[in-house]
Amino acid sequence: MSLIVVIEDNAQNARMAAKLLGNAGHKVMIAEDGENGLTTVFENNPDLVLIDLGLPDIDGQTVIALIRQQPALQTVPIIAFTAWPEDTAHSMAKAYGCDGVITKPINTRAFAGQVGSYLEKIPK
Amino acid sequence: MVAKTLSSSKTSQQGEVRIAVPASQYDFERLAAVYNQARVDYIVPMPMNAKRMAEYIHNYDIDLDASVISINQAGEETGVGMLGLRDDGTQRRAWITRLGVLPERRGTKVGQFLMEMLLEHASGRRSHLIQLEVILGNAPAYQLFHKLGFVDTRELLIVRRPPSAHEANANFDAANVSQISDDEIPFYLKLRGPSASWLEETPSLLNAGSMRGLRVETSDSQRGWILFQRTPFQLTHFVISPDISSELAEALIYHVHKEYPMQDTKIENLPIDSVNWPAFQKMGYMEVFRRVEMFLTLE
Question: Complex ipTM, two decimals?
Answer without folding.
Answer: 0.87
